[in-house]
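Q: For a teaching session next week I want to show students how multiple molecules come together into a single three-dimensional assembly. I've collected the sequence lines for a complex. Could you give me the predicted structure tokens for the whole thing so I can convert them for display?
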Amino acid sequence: MKKLERAFGNKLAIAIFIAPALILFTLVIPLPILHSFYMSLFKWDMLSTMTYVGFENYKELFSDGIFLFSIWHTIEITVLSLIFQVILGLFLALCIVNITKGRKYFQNAFFIPNILSSAVIGILWFFVYNYDFGLINSILKSIGLDSLQQEWLSQKYVILALSITTCWQWVGYHMILYIAAISGISQDIIEAAIVDGAQGLKMVTKIIIPQIRPVLRVSIVLIITGSLKYFDMAWIMTEGGPDFASETIATYIYRTAFNKLQYGLGSAASTFLFAVSILITVLINKLAAKREEVY
Amino acid sequence: MFAKYIKLSPVAKAIIFAFLTFYSILTLFPLIWLVYNSVKTNNDFLANPFGLPQISNLQLKNYYDAWVTMGIQRFTINSLIISSVSVIFSLIISSMAAYAIERMIWRSSQKVLNYFLSGIMVPIQIILIPLFINFKKLNLLDSRIGLLIPTVAFALPTLIFILTGFYKTIPRELEEAALIDGCSVYKIFYKIILPLTMPAFVTIAVFNFLGAWNDLLIPLVLIQTPEKMTLPVGLLNFRGMYGAELTKMFAAVVISAIPSIIIYFVLQDKLLKGMIAGALKG
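A: Of course. Below is the structure for the complete assembly, covering every listed component.
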């Protein structure tokens, strides 16, 4: 098939097909990443001239208590999100596959928050948590539990509150993935397990969880990478406050660059976030590869 | 189906059913609360945030005010324009690239694919500062084109990933036959490949549309004047300006949630299938 190879190996055609995507992608993603690293070596507020400061911005970054807090908050959100979304998602999925009536309703009910924009969710939950007229406190009041009323978006609870909202937004998504995976387990395996006397919890831990391991991995990767760039909820509901109690790496970058106009410092924080994302992606892939060798 | 193989007692089933019912109410209640408070007067809401509205005193005017007087209409139109145009461009550009990578014969095609795929993991925060600075220099800040460029670019890696997967399944014979009939590669692409992948396009187009519709960070950084804001940024701006008129705020939030909910209910089976396929392949 010389003709085929000639037609599909046509260099000009290949260039025409690939060029728009390649150029746009390169200009908007890889080049700005390099540019960001370059800028992290300067002090600049866009008004005065740029001054080269070497790795001074990185030193400043890691001696800035707020930045260190933002790393800690990002870790807290990641851990809470993993706990809430994986466990609750799996539990809901296991419940749903065991009933016949109402499956569709339950799936939709749990999934609906996921299609709303974070602006809608953030503003809604800002009101849910409000002290004076929020949903939670007004329910507590109406059932006589006034003493349990809290300032939910206070320093003490804000990370927990944000993680709950994020769980509300995402748990249905992970549940749907788990339901698909559980429904895909081969019937022979389930039957064999029943013959061997696997029941209840044993069935879940010995059969179902090992069988859906690849999906669990995908959902854990998604939760970790999503938490690393956690911005929307923290910015909409508290702007990283009160008193930086919900400052994440992403809100720190935004505030430093676009509110304080410290572009060099912001770029240093961006570069740090990029390095961490790469590190974590590589680490997860390595771990997963090892695991799969074992099994 | 899975349920057949596990024998649960009726009591256990009833407990599961009751739990799911309770939890679904818990999940949906914030939305219900939002909707019924959006038709109260501000004073009614403040006096009793939990109570139902009086039927005789429904404030449908809240919706009119939010939509017309306070500018939600403008934000919705902006969002519609940005989301549709970015979906069209993303699909054209990525389907061309995916075709070249998957169906054309050249040595570095897999390398180029990996180059695109590496973009999936990049958090958008990392490129915002250089983007902002360069767009300022190029006079692209606060413009629709400036907003479209990164929206389209960030959609590319995922789209190329999904589309190369689709193109892989098309048999070579179709293209060979067309070639013998004298078609050029360009013609093969838009006469044979594109029509074959149309059904898949619908699903990814909807995903892509919702992604652009819901995006907050890019327009938050790139758009400054209220006339050009998209819904998410407009809502935040709205809260800043009319923060005291809470029930009107609620109406605005309800309005901006409606399009996504309609899209979901019209296309839910396709959407869920596409989502599962996307995640399980990755």
